[in-house]
Amino acid sequence: PTQTPVRIDLYDTQRSRKLTSYELPFTTTLESLSPNGVLAVTRIADGTDRLDVWNLDEKSHVCGLRPYTHLGEDSRDRDIQAVAFVDDSHLLTMNNTSLTLHEIPTGRAIYEIALEQGGRPVLSPSRRFFALLDGPAQACHIFDVLSGQQVGSIDCGAQPSGCGFHPSGEQLAVMIGSQSGGEVIIVGMADGQ
């Protein structure tokens, strides 16, 4: 198959000008940029289990990752479902069963957290925390992103169905019930109230 050239153009939207342009050597899709805009992570186009990190300033390849290959060649859990930079040197990846934080540029896994079936973490706007619903425990757990340590938990009293952070990051809302009805619990991140 013929490889289609892919280029990443980085723009300063406040000044309406292009900052840099980098042509990648193989077909890939952009997944996330680091907060400083220097690093980009892409997913290889002909697979779902490989990521590549690029330095846009130096126009160079930083590292390649296949975070879930240890699960075996035939495992569907090798497929990466989501990826996001947490800061300029850490990348969060998720497959069907776990959430993993990686150090960049080494690609080393710092921690892996098992996910309940269908559980998807929600990052706070600062990317300092993530919330994770736990249906069987009828709770929403809050974790520190860099350590993977649980720093709080909200007892929902029923199975939670969704959650989200306020854009300021100062509050977390947890929905209990279905889309057709239920209630929302709003908790302050500073005091847990």
Q: What do you see in this structure?
A:
The chain has 193 residues and is mostly beta strands. Helix content is 0%, strand content 53%. It contains no helices and 17 strands.
* Strand percentage: over 45%
Shape: globular
Largest sheet: 4 strands, antiparallel
Mean pLDDT: 87
Series of H and E elements: EEEEEEEEEEEEEEEEE
Distance between the termini: 57 Å
Output the radius of gyration.
19 Å
Number of strands: 17
The helix content, as a percent range, equals under 10%
Provide a count of the helices: 0
- Poorly predicted runs of 5 or more residues: none
**What structural category characterises the helix and strand content?**
mainly beta
Order of strands across the main sheet? 3-4-5-6
Quick summary of this structure?
The chain has 193 residues and is mainly beta.
Task: Lay out the secondary structure.
Blueprint: E1 6-12, E2 17-24, E3 28-33, E4 39-44, E5 51-55, E6 60-65, E7 82-87, E8 90-94, E9 98-103, E10 109-114, E11 122-123, E12 129-134, E13 139-144, E14 150-155, E15 160-165, E16 171-178, E17 181-188
Antiparallel strand pairs: 1-2, 3-4, 4-5, 5-6, 7-8, 8-9, 9-10, 11-12, 12-13, 13-14, 15-16, 16-17
List key phrases describing it.
single chain; 193 residues; mainly beta; 4-stranded antiparallel sheet; 0% helix; 53% strand
